[in-house]
Amino acid sequence: RAILKGDLFDMSVPILHWSDLGVASWFDIAVAVGEISVELGLIEKSAKVYSISSLDFATKARRPSYSVLDCYETRKMLGIDGIHWRQGLYNILNEFSSINNNGDRRV
Question: What's the pTM value of the predicted model, to 2 decimals?
Answer without folding.
Answer: 0.73
